[in-house]
Each structure stands twice: as structure tokens, then as C-alpha cells.
Amino acid sequence: MNKAELVKSMAEKSGLTQKDSEAALNAFVKSVEGALGNDDKVALVGFGTFEARERKARQGRNPRNPEEVIDIPASKAPVFKAGKTLKEIVNK
């Protein structure tokens, strides 16, 4: 499902117009991005949790030259952990 299909589905299920559904989806995405950018967590009970996790600095190999060892700096990565209800729906 792409964004347009998601907006259409949201509009059908909520009774909102597609324009309003797209605005709601965009607001949700911006809110999650803002929270993760501030090192906050977004927890939706039953659905899941969005958070940013620290990744340690490490060494890797240059894909173009496998003999060359390169340093990969520490970074943050966005992570989604599915909630119990979502896991149960997926595993039916």
C-alpha cells in the first residue's frame, strides 16, 4: 500500500475527505519525526512504538574494495517495534 492508497483507505474508514485524511496523515508523520528528532518515543498502545536508537561506531569493509577497512561513525537509527495487537493481527 502506498501513500495515496493509505489516504484513500483512511478517508473511507473515517468519513473524512481524502484531502483531510492526507492532512491528518502528514500531521502524524511530522509529529513522529519531531518526537524522534527530540529523542522522544511515540508509543501507540496495541499498535507499536517508534523510537530512535543509538548505533555504536564500528569498522566495516569498503564494498568497492573489500580489502580496505573503513570506520563507520556512530549514528542514530529510527526503529519501530510492533505492539502485541498488531503482531497478533499479522500472525493470523
UniProtKB/TrEMBL annotation:
<keyword id="KW-0238">DNA-binding</keyword>
<dbReference type="GO" id="GO:0030261">
    <property type="term" value="P:chromosome condensation"/>
</dbReference>
<dbReference type="Pfam" id="PF00216">
    <property type="entry name" value="Bac_DNA_binding"/>
</dbReference>
<dbReference type="GO" id="GO:0003677">
    <property type="term" value="F:DNA binding"/>
</dbReference>
<dbReference type="GO" id="GO:0030527">
    <property type="term" value="F:structural constituent of chromatin"/>
</dbReference>
<comment type="similarity">
    <text>Belongs to the bacterial histone-like protein family.</text>
</comment>
<protein>
    <submittedName>
        <fullName>DNA-binding protein HU-beta</fullName>
    </submittedName>
</protein>
<dbReference type="InterPro" id="IPR010992">
    <property type="entry name" value="IHF-like_DNA-bd_dom_sf"/>
</dbReference>
<keyword id="KW-0226">DNA condensation</keyword>
<dbReference type="InterPro" id="IPR000119">
    <property type="entry name" value="Hist_DNA-bd"/>
</dbReference>
<dbReference type="InterPro" id="IPR020816">
    <property type="entry name" value="Histone-like_DNA-bd_CS"/>
</dbReference>
